[in-house]
Amino acid sequence: MSKLHFVTDGFVKNNPTFVLVLGMCPTLATTTSAMNGLEMGLATMFVLILSNIVISLLAPMVPDKVRIPVYITVIATFVTVLQLLMQAFTPAVYETLGLFIPLIVVNCIVLGRAEGFANKHGVGESALDGLGVGLGFTASLTVIGIVREILGSGAVFGWKFISGDGILAFVMAPGAFLVLGFLMVLFNKYLAKK
Amino acid sequence: MEYFLIFVSAIFVNNILLAQFLGICPFLGVSNKLSTATGMSGAVCFVITLATVVTYLLNQYLLVPFGLEFLQTISFILVIAALVQMVEIVLKKISPSLYQALGIFLPLITTNCAVLGVAITVVTKEFALGGAAPHMFNLGEAVVYAVATSLGYGLAMCLFAGLREHLAGNDVPKAFKGLPIALITVGIMAMAFLGFSGIV
User: Fold this and answer.
1) Among the four residues A72, A159, B16, B105, which has the most C-beta atoms within 10 Å?
2) CB of A189 within 8 Å of any CB in chain B?
3) Contacting residues of B for A24, CB less than 8 Å apart
4) CB B120 to CB A99 under 8 A?
5) What are the tens digits of pLDDT across the range A113-155?
6) Model confidence at A1, in pLDDT bands (50, 70, 90)?
7) Cβ neighbour number for residue A151 with a 10 Å cutoff
8) Contact A77 B191 (CB under 8 A)
9) Residue A102 forms contact with B (CB below 8 Å)
10) What residues are paired with B82 via a beta bridge?
11) Which residue stretches of chain A are H helix?
């Protein structure tokens, strides 16, 4: 029970998107709709948990000097596994998220947790941390996706509540920056009140 | 004509930062001052071009003939990491002044997703420009695309650094301070760049 905070920390205190501001590229690029944000978050979580587990096991054996290349190789391996799995079972999702699946390799969240958490903690804790941060990332991406989908196409998770188009700019590039900026303001307000 | 179209489209229409969302982390991280922004853009330009040539050849002559395309991600990132390290060593020897100028930015570039992004894009995506039939880039086109993309990166980066220097002196509400106002500024910049979208 006491270990539960490793999971919940990832949501508010260590929220990867709004507090740590890591992994901005997929956050901005794939949140054109709530569903896309959710899928991207889950894909990242998959890699995050597995790489955290393996790196926490490897860390004591790896010399300090070569640790970063070793971590990147481990992460890249799991990304390749994820790519092959997605191509086999969810080809449509793989097609929509496109380039940003292989780019999980250079997502600073994954390397950041490897370097900042997994190499100093045990297997169980690292797995929980991966789960927590992964869920936090997924939640943030989904929220951004929901806001952009409501404003941009007048729908939630593909269910349309207005006829016709929304404000198209919110589905395109500028909307990503604007929505993230304003959500960050709200998050800051919330943290300041606590 | 073909090369010119690739050039214009990569710099303005499909700007790597403002339309493709690649390399945002260093973009937000080092755009506080115009001088560091130019330094970073220079380093990125150098590495993107070099990395694209090397990974293109690797893909063409090693991965494709042996049917190993699924190793693209892992082999490309290793090549880029090794390349950045090598560039660092070579620059230190032959041009200490350039090395000093790029200094701290070089190691950061390994995890800049713009580099891996461009490398993967040129070997997997079919491009259709100016009404031509979609086709894969040859080496020459890939190089032009890489150079133009990194110039677009530099352009957006330097413009934004200029804006941000002015922003620093302004009185913004407390909750907007720092990144939020920066993101909103980028949003407005991206809107301006949308205006180029009809060109190519």
Assistant:
1) B16
2) yes
3) 21, 24-25, 28
4) yes
5) 888 888 888 899 999 989 999 999 999 999 999 999 999 888 8
6) very low
7) 17
8) no
9) yes
10) none
11) 4-9, 24-29, 34-58, 67-89, 91-97, 108-113, 123-153, 173-193
